[in-house]
Amino acid sequence: xxxxxxxxxxxxxxxxxxxxxxxxxxxxxxxxxxxxxxxxxxxxxxxxxxxxxxxxxxxxxxxxxxxxxxxxxxxxxxxxxxxxxxxxxxxxxxxxxxxxxxxxxxxxxxxxxxxxxxxxxxxxxxxxxxxxxxxxxxxxxxxxxxxxxxxxxxxxxxxxxxxxxxxxxxxxxxxxxxxxxxxxxxxxxxxxxxxxxxxxxxxxxxxxxxxxxxxxxxxxxxxxxxxxxxxxxxxxxxxxxxxxxxxxxxxxxxxxxxxxxxxxxxxxxxxxxxxxxx
Length: 278
Description:
Elements: H1 9-37, E1 44-47, H2 51-61, E2 67-73, H3 79-90, E3 99-103, H4 112-118, H5 121-126, H6 139-150, E4 155-160, E5 167-174, E6 179-183, E7 198-203, H7 206-219, H8 224-242, E8 251-254, H9 259-277
């Protein structure tokens, strides 16, 4: 009885070759993670059982596909630092079209009118307004842009001013690339996470987050009572919207590691993938 499936000699050897490459990538990545575990501050705190195998398969068997990596964590946890240092590892390979970054912060809705009417951030927060819920961000537009990038299309992301609360539609042109990194508070929330190929959560202790957050708030024009009011909201909404995504992440990253170590380990990972697969 015919099954309708015929494996040619070429298919057989091609498949066997792919499996050998996948196996070699898995072994190399496991060694990197084992070395990482020995560090006082390891980068990887947790990885899902199938993460390494899935990455190896994607690299070998889906070379033309765009990989969408979603990176979330609480405000001031270190998401942007992780992404920026991962990029530094990427750009050492001068090949065009390696990566594109979409930042959730760029998609905040324009609330300049509300801020002007309130007169100050402190008065705005007293009305119950929150910058720290999914409703404050145009997640539908962000998702639409991410899908277009995965389809090989160019998009123009908006640009948000954290001092004036103005959103400008004519932000930055983002081109499709092999890897699309998207980072922000809500990139792993329901309705968005379904399109991610790899889901990453950045974990940082609350006392460290608080110190980082206040320093950043000051640079954005929020001090005193206004900063206190917003941080209370930040902590409350993180419990509701962000911390639960820890459980569904493929990898949990340590937000306490140095920038130098992030670059070192991401260099090692990219070199292993490049040297074995290509």
